[in-house]
UniProtKB/TrEMBL annotation:
Residues covered by the U3 small nucleolar RNA-associated protein 13 C-terminal domain: 599-721
Protein name: U3 small nucleolar RNA-associated protein 13 C-terminal domain-containing protein
Lineage of the species this protein comes from: Eukaryota, Metazoa, Chordata, Craniata, Vertebrata
WD repeat extents: 83-116, 125-168, 169-210, 317-358, 363-397, 417-451, 462-503, 504-545, 546-578
SMART domains xrefs: WD40
Length: 766
């Protein structure tokens, strides 16, 4: 969120603006409205003040942890950090015109000056009463003067040569909010919350003129603000020379308590760009525009915000006098309706060319807050509202709505129906405009016949939820109704017999929203637990859970093409989601096709006995079983030991790492232990222990090999004891050599492995 103390003037080239958001300073690109850089304190403490040097090179921030940090903001890196010396947080900061001196005003009533080049504190100015919320150097650095203001409503002038306060300027009766100097430095203007601006002679330090601007809170020197009115004053004559009624509560390159930023073209004061810095609790959000190019957002405010997705530019819509609760968009996507706690409904129209939004219709006849609204589906002919007064109203729209500049059309309710015993939380119109559904805090949903003439006719009641119903929604393709409830479930109901067809359970708290997506085959739900869940209706299965919010997700809407979704939460976040199902399917299909081609290539290489390429390809596929197949193929031929050794040693280091990992897996199975021990023999024989231990996870893999290797040795030892007489006899009968296949296997499998492991210090005496 932003306040006037936490936004700084744009850079010299007017491309960026700096503003704080908690423990971060965001660098906003004015042309696109996007955050291009962000610097953040490691301690996650909120930033209390920050300043950008006049040459745009240095950014200095102060946090509640009493740390000052100097940043290279273009690279988002901290270049220096030091203690602020203040005993409490820094409230204000400023650079001198040379960008070498930094002044910090603390909540402890002291002012400290820092040489940012030589990196030491040069002055410690005492004498201010309370929080020093304003510090500013005289633009002529040769005068070595610093101006400050604190809670005593005075402006103090400090001589930096003597470190003493030489003047106290007294004319304000409330906090001084800003100071500004003329180009020659001889005149200064101060503004304050006492609704006046004072012009000072800087030589005599006397007030030459007092300009009463009669504003609630004067925040700037030459511009003041009251209920969307911008005034420009001439200091010499104290006359208002320009007045402009604004479309928002914004001033040029400044921020108000509404957390909105705007830029105006001078001297015409035409709007260039405006941004919304803080949305508070997001209560509803909808796509707007024929190509879903905009978002309309209802926050915990009487204003509506319309964002252009491409540039993040924001329009602030005024009309409601209390918090806007919910929204709905007509089928043409250029009109939408809103309802609020002020008991009124409004219809808005967005110009397809300029994107400008205006109110075209207004109605007010509910006796309590209007908490739900729904537009007609076929054409813009009516809207339906539900209220905390337990009634449902149908409002007809005229065939021709007024254009911009014409008087807003006054709506009257054609139908008023006492629908429920408690608050009506949701209303929905069927795709053919013939049925109306309502959901209430009384735990029931009702189905009504919606006729062009005559009252509503109750067709049936849906009972089954254990707590109040938050939302009802018609399927776009089937004769079913979806509902979400505070009992943590969403249900599907048949419109013929009003029975519950399916129940979806998975949220840990109230299910606030439910909508149909994927042509009615899936449901999206959002809950108080901050989660958004995607359900497949046919299987009752939750196929995806999206976790991007920290609080209740009040807003949930899908684009007309079903390829985008937007969520809005009480955590002030608005998140746009993209459906990547088709992309993932295409990637998976391409991956499978690639696997098939590689498998065929592998078969061809094995057939041609190109074992090195085959082994490299199998490792690239990261398929241990396929690699084992290649190893077995190598060991089935002639001169297996030499061929295996020659092939393995030609592999790259990363391929040998993978092979060691596979050996640990193969060695767990007695059927594959000979293949694992054969590969292991080559690695341990030809690679020094130091190089082997550099492999990623080598120690873990080798330690995993030991117990299974000892088990295999014990098994072979038992076999030897049983077959030893036969082996010796067979050996002697053939000249005393180790020619028996069993003996050869025993010698090869049992010999090198453990001995080499013992060399690494990873194997015991066994």
């Amino acid at each position: 969120r932003f306040t006037n103390e936490f936004i700084k003037n744009p850079t010299i080239d007017e491309q960026f603006i700096f503003c704080t958001c908690g423990s971060r300073v965001n660098v906003l690109e004015i042309s696109t409205g996007k955050i291009v850089h962000s610097v953040e304190h490691d301690d996650q403490e909120d930033i209390t003040s920050f300043v950008l040097s006049p040459d745009d090179e240095l950014l200095v921030t102060a946090s509640r942890a009493l740390l000052l940090k100097q940043w290279d903001w273009k690279r988002a890196t901290c270049t220096r950090s030091w203690r602020a010396i203040h005993t409490v947080p820094v409230a204000s900061m400023t650079f001198d015109p040379t960008s070498t001196l930094l002044a910090t005003g603390g909540c402890d009533g002291t002012i400290k000056l820092w040489d940012v080049v030589k990196q030491y504190c040069t002055h410690n100015l005492k004498g201010s009463s309370g929080v020093v919320h304003l510090v500013q150097f005289h633009p002529d650095i040769s005068r070595l003067q610093l101006f400050s203001s604190s809670l005593d409503c005075n402006v103090r002038v400090w001589d930096l040569q003597t470190s003493k306060c030489v003047h106290v300027l007294q004319n304000h009766y409330s906090a001084v909010t800003s100071l500004s100097f003329s180009q020659n430095g001889d005149t200064m203007v101060s503004s304050g919350r006492d609704k006046i601006c004072t012009v000072w002679d800087v030589h005599s330090f006397k007030a030459t003129r007092t300009v009463p601007v009669y504003e609630v809170n004067v925040q700037n020197k030459y511009f003041d603000l009251l209920e969307c009115v911008l005034r420009v004053w001439e200091a010499s004559s104290a006359r208002c020379v320009h007045t402009r009624t604004l479309s928002s509560t914004l001033t040029p390159a400044s921020v108000t308590a509404e957390h909105n930023i705007v830029f105006y073209q001078l001297p015409s004061l035409s709007t260039l760009q405006q941004f919304s810095g803080y949305s508070d609790e997001v209560l509803d959000v909808k796509f707007l525009g024929k190509s879903d190019s905009h978002l309309v957002v209802a926050t915990n405010s009487c204003q509506l915000k319309v964002f252009e997705l491409l540039t993040n530019s924001c329009q602030i819509l005024y009309g409601h006098t209390d918090t806007v609760l919910t929204l709905d968009v007509f089928r043409n996507a250029s009109m939408f309706a809103s309802c609020a706690k002020d008991r009124s409904v409004r219809v808005w129209h967005m110009d397809s060319d300029s994107g400008h939004v205006t109110c075209v219709a207004h109605g007010s006849s509910h006796t309590n807050a209007v908490g739900s609204i729904c537009c007609s589906r076929l054409k813009a002919s009516f809207i339906v509202t539900g209220s905390q007064d337990c009634t449902v109203k149908v409002w007809d729209l005229p065939a021709e709505l007024p254009v911009e500049g014409e008087e807003v059309h006054q709506l009257t309710a054609r139908i008023t129906e006492k629908a429920h015993d408690k608050d009506v939380n949701s209303v929905a119109v069927s795709p053919n405009d013939k049925l109306l559904a309502s959901g209430s805090q009384d735990r029931t949903a009702k189905l009504w016949s919606l006729r062009p003439e005559g009252p509503l006719e109750l067709l049936g009641v849906f009972r089954g939820h254990r707590r109040g119903i938050w939302m009802v929604c018609f399927s776009p393709v089937d004769q079913v109704l979806a509902s979400s409830s505070a009992d943590g479930t969403a249900k599907l109901w048949g419109l013929q017999d009003f029975s519950c067809l399916k129940t979806f359970e998975g949220h840990d708290a109230s299910v606030l929203k439910v909508i149909f997506v994927s042509r009615g085959t899936q449901l999206l739900t959002s809950g108080s637990d901050g989660l958004v869940k995607l359900w497949t209706i046919k299987t009752n299965e939750c196929v995806k859970t999206l976790d991007a919010h920290q609080d209740k997700v009040w807003g949930l809407h899908a684009s007309r093409k079903d390829d985008l979704m937007v969520t809005g939460s009480a955590d002030s976040k608005i998140t746009v989601w993209k459906d990547v199902t088709e992309v993932e399917l295409a990637e998976e299909q391409a991956k499978q096709e690639d696997q098939i081609l590689k498998q065929q290539e592998l078969s061809n290489l094995l057939h041609e006995k190109k074992y090195l390429k085959a082994l490299g390809l199998a490792i690239a596929l990261d398929q241990p079983q396929t690699v084992l197949t290649v190893i077995k193929a190598i060991r089935q031929g002639e001169n297996t030991c030499e061929l295996l050794e020659k092939t393995v040693l030609k592999l790259r280091t990363d391929q040998k790492e993978s092979l060691l990992r596979y050996c640990a897996m193969w060695n767990t199975n007695a059927r594959n232990c000979l293949d694992a021990q054969g590969v292991l023999q080559v690695l341990l024989k030809h690679l020094p222990p130091e190089e082997l231990l550099q492999f990623q996870g080598a120690r873990t893999h080798l330690e995993g090999l030991i117990p299974y290797t000892e088990r295999h040795m014990q098994r072979i030892g038992n076999l030897l004891q049983c077959l030893l007489p036969a082996v010796v006899a067979a050996g002697r009968s053939r000249g005393g050599g180790w020619h028996c296949p069993v003996a050869c296997a025993v010698r090869w499998a049992a010999g090198p492995g453990p001995l080499s492991l013992r060399r690494l210090g990873l194997c015991g005496p066994a």
